[in-house]
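User: Second chain of the day. Same drill as before.
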Amino acid sequence: MSNIILPKSWNMAENEATPESVYMDRRSFIKGTSLVTLATAASFYGCSMSPTPDPDTPIELTANEKRSYPAKRNKKYKLNRRMTEERVAASSNNFFEFSEIKSDPRYLAQRMETSPWEVEVNGLVNKPRTFNPDDFYKLMPVEERLYRFRCVEAWAMAVPWTGFPLKALIDLVEPKPSATHIAMTTFYKPFTAQGQLAFWRPWPYTEALTLEEAANELTFMALGIYGRPLPKQHGAPVRLVIPWKYGFKSIKSIVKIEVIDYQPPTFWNTVLPMEYSFEANVDPDVPHPRWPQTREKMIGTNAVRATQPYNGYGEYVAHLYT
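Assistant: Same format as last time:
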């Protein structure tokens, strides 16, 4: 008589077992969610992951910074509106690495160490090089420019940036004939910038331009604002400013610039491609699903203006898109 083995109620067939890869993915998801929850709770209860310095503490300037501020203003670039007050611009920043609340980065970004800092420039160039911010003050034609700035969220401001045209940096590294685009990358420090613990987003932040856009005279690498070096919430120590495009293209706190021969993926175009195009030119005739683009609100005021194509800079850039 053969033995009959009755299966226990907790037994299951081997082919019903969860594959290891799925199990590990689930563990990674739970681990990531726990980190975000921990960071959020710590911030909420005032126990930040690192101390938050006072944003109004004066910073010590290098010798080159002392010589560079205030920089000579380039009078070619003028405003058709009142300049935004410095305190207003300093307290309203989209810097998702630190928070999705615009007033938070003024405080939370102070945790980030911006000295020492390096910007690596490589790719399809004849002279790859790594710079520190002080190199830019020594090597680049530093000046002040008044630019309008337009966010895709339909708010705007007008500020004085200090920096240099990106073209000057491009010329220094000598792109190869096959180059077509410039890709830029920001820092990745998730336990300093707690927003980067949101693992479902493609950190670090990346942005890109065509080589023609990058070499346009308006494309600006900002080192300062309001006559002094960039505060951290504005993207210290060096950021991009592209006044005819929506603000999300103006990547902050850059650590790498790569010259390439293809259009690369970028942060918001990857996250929400139907809302954030690669080109991202200011255009009142192209509506956004959440923010009408025909009007814009000047932050810190009650002024509402009609949105201009290319943010009013069409004479400089429209030829790039015909």
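Residues 20-44 form the longest helix (25 residues).

User: Great, on to the next one.
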